[in-house]
Amino acid sequence: MEVFARNGVPITSAQARGPMGIYKLDHIRALASLPDVAERWRQAHGSDCTEADVLAMYRQLVPIQESVLPRYCDLIPGTLEAMAEIRARGYKVGSTTGYPRSVGDIAAGSAREQGYEPT
């Protein structure tokens, strides 16, 4: 929502959440292609949102993520207990974030501080 607002095209929480879970560059593309968002982009910029615009927004997004992520890194209640049980059963655990390395490192560091580290 922030990156679109910074580009003069505010979007709703419902719009932002629609394509959640996909790679952030594709997420931005999906949002920019929504008819309402595309029309507001044209009104704000005088032209359609281009791939160059999408890439520019993605470059803006990473520092935004890095700055806000620490506020949203609380482990889900029960995570440590669940991981202990999984390990007790002999399983190894891996993690992935879908974030760029710089953002994933923040999430991993916060998880470690709370006692969680995949092994």
Strand content: under 5%
Rg: 18 Å
Count of beta strands:
0
Mean pLDDT: 92
Low-confidence stretches: none
Helix content: 55-70%
Distance between the termini: 34 Å
Q: Judging from the principal axes of the Cα atoms, what is the shape?
A: elongated
How large is the count of helical segments? 7
Pattern of helices and strands: HHHHHHH
Q: Please state the structural category.
A: mainly alpha
Q: What does the main sheet amount to? A: none
Q: Could you explain how this protein is built, in words?
A:
The chain has 119 residues and is mostly helical. It has seven helices and no strands. 61% of the residues lie in helices and 0% in strands. The chain is elongated, with a radius of gyration of 18 Å. The model has no long low-confidence stretch (mean pLDDT 92).
Labels describing this entry:
119 residues; mainly alpha
Topology readout:
Layout lengths: L1 H5 L6 H5 L6 H10 L1 H11 L5 H18 L10 H10 L12 H13 L6
Helix pairs in contact: 3-5
